[in-house]
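SEQUENCE WITH STRUCTURE:
===
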Amino acid sequence: MRWDSLFADLEAQLDASAAAALASEVAERTRAEWAAVRLRDRIAAHTDRELTWFLADGEVITGAVADLGADWVLLRAGTRETLVPLASVSSVSGLPSSAVAQTGLARRLALPVVLRGLARDRSPVRLHLTGGGVVTGTLDRVGADHVDVAVHPGDELRRTSSVTEVRTVALAALVRIGPV
């Protein structure tokens, strides 16, 4: 009788040890998978959800994701849309923990590609910069890490007579880009 108790106790200890090892392995794999999740992937999983976005310039926008690129998000708040570089997102409130992997051609578009499209359109834009600065005008040229902006009043077309200066803005300084 004593041997049966000893064997049962040893088997219970072995089962408990195996269960603890399995739980530890599952927890470690979960942590490793979570470590590979990018903010962009979490945003992509919730494009239909209204979120609160806290930006580097202190601005707070409540809006849903209208589109998402490699390093930018297009937010829709009512009828207004704002292009936000992901590097300018300080935090997001209301974002669930699920995520999706990066897929699709549009999702590979980097910010300079989108800005080149705006430059081709020649539409006036308002650039909000870190530190609270605002530049209004038309994008002339887009480099790898900067954009040249013909500064002019937003209610005027880009004409030589209306341009007050051409300002070169570092892409790293962009917080959000919106219509005039």
Notes: The longest strand covers residues 60-68. The mean pLDDT is 90.
